[in-house]
Amino acid sequence: MDALEMLLQRRSIPRLAAPAPSGDVLENIIQAGLRAPDHGALTPWQFVICEGEGLTRLSTILADAAQTNGADEAAIEKARNAPLRAPMVVAVIARTRPHDKVPTIEQHISAGCATQAMQMAAVAQGFQGFWRTGAFAYHPAVREALSVEGDDQIVGFLYLGTPDCAPANAPKRDTSKFVTYL
Ligand SMILES: Cc1cc2nc3c(=O)[nH]c(=O)nc-3n(C[C@H](O)[C@H](O)[C@H](O)COP(=O)(O)O)c2cc1C
After folding, report:
1. Which of 16, 90, 132, when mutated, tests ligand 1's pocket best, judged by the most ligand atoms within 8 Å of its CB?
2. How many domains would you assign to the chain?
3. Which of 46, 68, 100, 133 has the most CB atoms at less than 10 Å from its CB?
4. Among 55, 35, 54, which Cα is nearest to 45's?
5. 8 domain residue, yes or no
């Protein structure tokens, strides 16, 4: 697919089927993330791939977090099932460090860029993705389970898999509403 066309037509697909990306395709997805813009060459990224038993572990982490919230059984089950909407979830973590020229927010933004680069690399190879956070990305129990401390942040759970339907149309937006000239 033409790169510009891919960007202009980009949509997310919320339900993704097996197979998940693997082998060279998965390697390309990770490599695309590792090419994210990175002020100061701090490489502030970590990707936790959850597939198979790993996905079950992520389910348990989210269900346990819901339980610590005092959620009812239905909400706990919803949390448990959340990661199962795709055969693979990549938790993208901004691993930050103090730097006199690169504020933490820039390191978070870089991890966000990595997330979209990975999503687009999946699309470029015939797969699809959906970027989610939800309250659990900020939940102390989830952070602890993924060893996320201090200024570090889970910037997204990137759901990856095979699209089982065509993406929705990508409506063209009116640039004049978003653009001004100085
Ligand atoms: C940081 C971030 C977090 C997001 N978290 C969620 C989420 O938790 N749940 C959700 O439905 N969409 C979430 N989204 C939005 C979806 O990924 C998606 O972009 C949105 O549904 C619009 O669909 P589209 O990508 O096809 O335009 C998030 C997007 C970003 C950038």
Report:
1. 132
2. 1
3. 46
4. 35
5. no
Is 73 among the domain residues?
Answer: yes
DSSP 38-63: -GGG---EEEEEEETHHHHHHHHHHH
Q: What's the rounded Cα separation, in Å, for the pair 13 and 20? A: 14
* Residue 50 maps to a domain: yes
For residue 1, pLDDT beyond 90: no
Angle of the 23-33 helix axis to the 104-124 helix axis, nearest 10: 150
Query: Which one, of 21, 3, 7, lies nearest residue 127 by Cα?
Result: 21
pLDDT tens track for 3-57? 999 999 999 999 899 999 999 999 999 999 999 999 999 999 999 999 999 999 9
Determine which residue's CA is closest to atom 14 belonging to ligand 1: 132
pLDDT the model gives residue 69: 94
pLDDT in tens, 96-140: 999 999 999 999 999 999 999 999 999 999 999 999 999 999 999
Contact 119, 161 (CB under 8 A): no
CATH of the domain at 101: 3.40.109.10
